[in-house]
Structure formats: C-alpha cells, structure tokens
C-alpha cells in the first residue's frame, strides 16, 4: 500500500523523488521494524540519510503511467 501511495505522489511533499522513495522503501521498512522491535521511536527523516537517496527522477511520462495504472486517472499532469 505504501508503494502505491508513493507511486501516485502522496509523499511528494517530502521533496524526495518518487524513484528514491521506492528504492529506499524496503530498507526503510526493515529499519522501522528493527527500531520498533527495539522499542525505539524515530521519524522517517531520521532513518533516511541524504547520502542514500538516489538523484534520478522518474520521467513525467513514466510517473503519469504509474498514476493512471493505480488510480485510473492522472494527478501530476495530463497527456
């Protein structure tokens, strides 16, 4: 579910590219589970270092296709 939210832009407010969030999602979830098991509470921003964020962005076309595939409508742009 989080993956689909990322794909349609629900986390665009973070200023991280969708591609980076999708790339880091498995690692972040693993880290969150580990921290939860240890009883720690952290913000997501504390779990992601800026060194680990890929610099590339999805193309507008690819991003729009993800939105259409998941929501059956375009959010960020219209063809």
UniProtKB/TrEMBL annotation:
This is Uncharacterized protein. It comes from marine sediment metagenome.
């Amino acid at each position: 579910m989080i993956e689909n939210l990322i794909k349609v832009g629900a986390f665009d407010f973070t200023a991280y590219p969708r591609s980076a969030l999708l790339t880091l999602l498995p690692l972040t979830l693993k880290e969150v589970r580990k921290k939860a098991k240890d009883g720690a509470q952290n913000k997501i921003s504390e779990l992601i270092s800026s060194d680990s964020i890929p610099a590339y962005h999805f193309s507008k076309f690819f991003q729009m296709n993800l939105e259409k595939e998941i929501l059956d409508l375009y959010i960020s742009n219209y063809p």
